[in-house]
Amino acid sequence: MLRLLDIVFSLLGLVLGFPVLLLVYLVGLFDTGAPLFWQERVGRHQKPFTLVKFRTMRVGTASVASHLADTQAITPMGRFLRRTKLDELPQLWNVLRGEMSLVGPRPGLFNQQELLQARQAHGVFAARPGITGLAQVSGIDMSTPELLAQTDARMLAHLSVRNYFNFIVQTVLGGGHGDAAAR
Questions:
Q1: Of 1, 124, 144, 166, which has the most beta carbons under 10 Å away?
Q2: Can you tell me the distance from the alpha carbon of 61 to that of 149, in angstroms, rounded to the nearest whole number?
Q3: pLDDT (tens digit, 9 = 90+) per residue, 61-109?
Q4: What is the 3-state secondary structure (H, E, C) of 101-140?
Q5: How many CB atoms lie within 10 A of CB 132?
Q6: Model pTM?
């Protein structure tokens, strides 16, 4: 049922959100010259997938977790995109493709060994990674890997249609604090 909701809402989001996606893309051309950002992330069953986002940092910035990112590399437009979470919109394509869900644990990087181990221990990789979830609306980021993995596991154990919508609504209404690097 949740996969069907993912397909319907990601498709609707891409179609109805196309004007916003196009506007952010065009502004991004002037901001960084390369408005889209692709990065290999850890997916379901620890399989790699390519996540797509709007670029918020200067081209050539090191590929690290947000809490380790050089905040000086974030562009003014990028800061706005991170605060409003608009940088996440292109991930609707990842959701439509089945690589992600709207609700699930945020996908980490393969170089985040402590997080990978904690998530493996808690069975988090059985689920598709998501755009939002309990950790995001609770303000828990990847700087606390064990707490994040525990929170992800708790969310997955209690994930229902009601909770799915609850996390989406909380995110849209500004739940959580956005990206740690943009604070």
A1: 124
A2: 27
A3: 666 566 655 677 788 888 999 888 899 999 999 999 999 999 999 999 9
A4: EEECCCCCCCCCHHHHHHHHHCCHHHCCCEEECHHHHCCC
A5: 23
A6: 0.87
